[in-house]
Amino acid sequence: MHFIRAGKGIPAFVFVHGFACTSDDWRAQLEHFQKTNEVVACDLRGHGKTPGRPHECSIEHYGGDVAALVNNLELKRFILIGHSMGCRVVLEAARLIPERTAGVVLVDGSRNATGDPDDAEANARATIEKLGYAPFAEMLFRQMFFTPSAQADAIVARAVKSSAEFGPHLWPRISRWDAGSMDAAFDAIRAPVLAIQSTTRNAQLQREMLKPGDTSPWMEFLKSRNARLEIIPDVGHFTMLEAPQRVNQLVAEFVSR
């Protein structure tokens, strides 16, 4: 597993990227927090500089990998911080190592499915097969940005290209985990949870920016699980890149509590 480690100070911050993304997406947070805390960011299997075969790419494997990483680095107390798919990964990791998890931060998470896990996986796979994976991935990532930019174009191109092999397998498994394991993962958490939300998405994968006071089924679920919820308006899905100072402020305030 490729990872970045810098800084000193407890608690450590462990950053986990999203689907078809890399640890580089956390560069603004790594630069900021390494001045006061130890920071770690990893590339999950099949992503970035970490190799991985498609059948190994799942939320369960990723959560185990993150738990193994913090054990191998001998981190005593840490905050697990995930973005998008990485929200699921840190929830899975927290379930495996609850005694040293001091807090969990979820950045623009979501829930793809509820109900029967077999149906959830089959429906996600059918959507990909209907559209073709490359058009599906292009549509998925284009809707994550509301302001055209070179950075947005680069992230979309990176995602479509890098996930061509594992994406058709991993995406349906994400839906399966959401339906079958997300409730249990939240039930196992004993640490405080902060959810930073900037967008919402409907069943057709159409994404919209949030305004203060907005809600969604995912946000109502977070409230039911006693998560602290903060909305950052007027930005897209990559909240930590588009509003880095606000994300850093909210994380720092959460940790100080």
Which series of helices and strands comes N to C? EEHEHEHEHHHHHEEEHEHH
Distance between the termini: 32 Å
Could you say which overall geometry the principal axes of the C-alpha atoms support? globular
Strand order of the largest sheet: 1-3-2-4-5-6-9
Q: Which bin fits the share of residues in helices? A: 40-55%
| Biggest beta-sheet profile | 7 strands, mixed
The overall pLDDT, averaged over residues, is: 96
Provide a count of the helices: 11
Count the beta strands: 9
Rg, Å, rounded: 17 Å
Structural class: alpha/beta
Low-pLDDT runs of 5+ residues are none
Which percent range describes the beta-strand content?
15-25%
Explain what you see.
A hairpin with a 5-residue loop joins strand 7 (199-201) and strand 8 (207-209). With 257 residues, the chain is α/β, with parallel strands linked by helices. The chain is globular. The model has no long low-confidence stretch (mean pLDDT 96). Helix 2 packs across helix 3 (85-96), helix 3 (85-96) crosses helix 8 (182-188) and helix 5 (133-142) packs antiparallel against helix 6 (150-162). It has helices spanning 27-33, 59-72, 85-96, 117-131, 133-142, 150-162, 167-180, 182-188, 217-224, 239-242, 244-256, and strands spanning 3-6, 12-16, 39-42, 78-83, 101-107, 193-197, 199-201, 207-209, 228-231.
